[in-house]
User: Fold this.
Amino acid sequence: MNSAEHMLKGEAFFQKNLLLYVNRATETYQLPLHSHDFIELAFVAEGKGFHYTEQEVQKACRGQLYFIPVGVSHVFRPSSPHSLKEPLVVYNCLFTTALLDDLASVIPDAPIAAYLEQIKNQQVPAFSMTDQNGSIENLFLSLHREYNLPQTGSGSYLLTLFIQLVVTLYRLQHDELHFPVTRPTQFLQILHYIQQEYAQDLTLSHLARTFDWSERHLQRLFKTHTGQTFHHFLQNVRIQKSCVLLIQQLHSPIPLIAEQVGYHDTKTFNLVFKRIIGKPPGGYRQEAASTGAQPQAIEAAIDANPSG
Assistant:
């Protein structure tokens, strides 16, 4: 593929003094190989295809993240010209070096501050990585939601999400190289696993076998790090997720919502929901609908407090 002559300018994207832009795009064959005067983080959310740069071609698939510095020519292409049938969907987070300057004074951790400085000075080359535990995807979903459904304080909230994203990338790039995988790190992987698989028939014995722990020690870790037993932690995750579904799916019957979050017995779901939330699912849905509660706001609260 030939070198890019097409340069995208940040002025077309950054508005209202916010040096950050987030979108969700279905890739086509229309955009040519291009560079830009800003930095880009691109996350593949759906499908598969290819990521072209001047130097190489990489297969692009769901869960892959790409870092594209200023001036580097690149473009995504779907695997098939029939992009509507087999779409390649990418979340893009664009930001300026000026944003990194603004954040420098609020980052207390020397390694992260140095990482931002290296990115700003174009000392970090283009790279890609795989989202192993869903943490990158969750941050992109939150960034996109907050950018496109702004509320009071959205500018500040977007910056906190962006900082979380930078810290996550740093950890994935550096911590695995310099530190062995520790038991606390493995326990975090278990928590991420529960967040993804909460609707399945999860048991403590299943987790112990999957992650090579003893059940007794794993239960102790849940009490130490979450303040809850495994059973209560799982209940909280499921009920928090059901709160979102009750608003997203206003006409879905309660038994279907219960089934979607892992409860096969509606009576048990109702009892657990009332114990945790303080009212039955139907009452919660009615109250949330009357106050205009948005699923996005509920999801954001869950993202901030995943264990209840």
